[in-house]
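Hello again, I could really use a second opinion on something today. I've been puzzling over a protein and I'd love to understand its fold better. I'm sending you its amino acid sequence along with the backbone structure tokens. It would help a lot if you went through both lines with me. I've dropped the whole record in just underneath, so have a look.
***
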Amino acid sequence: MTHPDLQLEVHDDVAVIRLTRGAKRNALSDGLILALRNTFETLPASVRAAVIDGEGPHFCAGLDLSELKERDAGQGMQHSRMWHAALNCVQYGPVPVIAALHGAVVGGGLELASACHIRVADASTFYALPEGSRGIFVGGGGSVRIPKLIGVARMTDMMLTGRVYNAEDGERAGFAQYLVPEGTAFDKAFELAKRVAQNAPLTNYALMHALPRIAEQPADQGYFTEALIAGIAQSAPEAKTRLRDFLEGRAEKVKKA
């Protein structure tokens, strides 16, 4: 599936997925959400990391409210589940995903950002969840993912009061792991994606798929799952080669930043 509001570019082993609906602040239509799902389901096998970016001054201003329809409860539930399936393809897809945030990261845009594994925000970024004032509720997985970034109390406050976080306060709250000067979010995200793409694919896969599940498990189950994943990862031929390179002085040692 191709979509006029979504662009895919592949630069060696990094995919750049860009929302190209700048005139609508990259608001997410159902067609665009389905195109995102399809893109992550069909990424070329050569891709090892991805960047999600938004065209123009805003990353994504959320759900396209012009598409809201009269739905009964069952139809509304199915619509939400469609979003869940699409954003699960981002979070639990084939490769780590870095979001390049700028301008509005609002509503469904914040839900999309929270499905990514690393978030880089520039100084123009602001975060909001205006659903409370519009008589609706998050439906794209935000009630699960966003509290894991900032906590239930902060999310509740945002939805009850309409509070907006700027870039600096947002980084402190946990929305983003990196804060960079205005206009440089994509450059930093792409730099990180290139670095992530150099990791052993099995380790990246474990970090994406195993780590969040381990974090949800009781400690004894988490330890057991960790042991299984550690055993599988270190048995991979690439892991053995990388460890041998380190032991024989061919790999860089960790240095102070």
In short: Strands lie at 6-11, 14-19, 49-54, 97-101, 104-106, 118-122, 126-128, 165-166, 178-180. Residues 214 and 223 are 8 Å apart (CA to CA). The mean pLDDT is 94.
